């Protein structure tokens, strides 16, 4: 008896054909769970999550030579400093005062949603991006950061090096939708639903301890089935 139990335990594994049959049998359950998860995450992204918007503006750092030509090397040298200057408290405090948003945002909060980038190998531009759930405020902050940076360097004697060298080229763009990524949320929901439904099906199947077909008897017990009793629906003939 012990030897037979050992043999059954060793052979009690799910084959690829079994997996396919299980998936076919539970197909609509898997589809239903997958769609539920997709609808939940997709619905959250489309109807519940508050959207964020992004606005983008640009300035150009231009250093002129005595002959009124652009000194590219010197301009590139100043790019990084200008980008850092735009994100300082000195500039962002002026932005808060300029827009009168003391009750909405602090310089630190503005900085956390502010993205200032440069590409010294390609251009002399500094790109300013701001992301906010307040659609109108998004563009206003980009414009104010650019404006207040220029005013700040022009007013501060210690920043004489940058005076008249920061040229606004692109005002803040019209705010455009940024996040959440609705398509991605829906896709992740469907993927998660598929994984969860398959896991439920396979775990339930693995926990079964009963033999349900003659094929399983022959495979697990290595016994040949000589016959089986079919399920019949018997109906009594009505007596005339």
How many discrete structural domains? 2
Query: H/E order of the elements?
Result: HHHEHHHEEHEEHH
The level-1 CATH class of the largest domain: Alpha Beta
The number of distinct helices, counting runs of at least 4 residues, comes to 9
Low-confidence stretches: 1-12
CATH topology of the largest domain: Bacterial polysaccharide co-polymerase-like
Q: Termini distance?
A: 55 Å
Shape label: elongated
CATH architecture label of the largest domain: 2-Layer Sandwich
The largest sheet is: 5 strands, antiparallel
CATH homologous superfamily annotation of the largest domain: FepE-like
What structural category arises from helix and sheet content? Answer: alpha+beta
Strand content: 5-15%
Round the mean pLDDT to the nearest integer and report it. 85
Gyration radius from CA atoms, angstroms: 34 Å
Let me know the number of strands. Answer: 5
Helix content: 40-55%
Write a structural description.
This protein has helices spanning about 1-10, 15-25, 25-50, 70-85, 90-100, 105-110, 135-155, 180-205, 215-220; strands at about 50-60, 115-120, 125-130, 165-170, 175-180. It has about 240 residues and is of the alpha+beta class. It folds into 2 domains: about 1-50 and about 180-220, no CATH class; about 55-180, FepE-like (Bacterial polysaccharide co-polymerase-like), CATH 3.30.1890. The chain is elongated.
Short synopsis of the structure:
This protein is of the alpha+beta class and 240 residues long. 53% of the residues lie in helices and 13% in strands.
């Amino acid at each position: 008896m012990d030897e037979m139990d050992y043999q059954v335990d060793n052979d009690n594994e799910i084959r690829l054909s079994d997996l396919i049959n299980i998936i076919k049998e539970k197909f609509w359950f898997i589809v239903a769970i997958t769609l539920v998860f997709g609808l939940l995450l997709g619905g959250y992204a489309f109807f519940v999550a508050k959207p964020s918007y992004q606005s983008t503006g640009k300035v150009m750092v231009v250093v002129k030579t005595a002959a009124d030509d652009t000194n590219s090397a010197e301009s590139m040298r100043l790019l990084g400093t200008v980008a850092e200057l735009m994100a300082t408290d000195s500039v962002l405090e002026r932005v808060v005062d300029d827009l009168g948003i003391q009750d909405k945002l602090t310089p630190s909060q503005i900085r956390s949603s502010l993205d200032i980038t440069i590409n010294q190998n390609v251009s002399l531009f500094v790109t300013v991006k701001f992301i906010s759930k307040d659609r109108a405020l998004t563009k206003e902050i980009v414009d104010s950061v650019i404006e207040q940076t220029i005013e700040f360097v022009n007013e501060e004697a210690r920043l004489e090096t940058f005076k008249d060298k920061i040229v606004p080229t692109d005002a803040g763009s019209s705010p455009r939708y940024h996040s959440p990524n609705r398509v991605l949320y829906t896709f992740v929901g469907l993927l998660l639903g598929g994984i969860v439904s398959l896991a439920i099906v396979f775990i339930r199947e693995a926990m079964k301890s009963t033999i349900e077909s003659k094929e399983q008897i022959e495979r697990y017990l290595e016994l040949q089935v000589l016959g089986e009793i079919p399920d019949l629906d018997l109906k009594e003939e009505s007596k005339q």
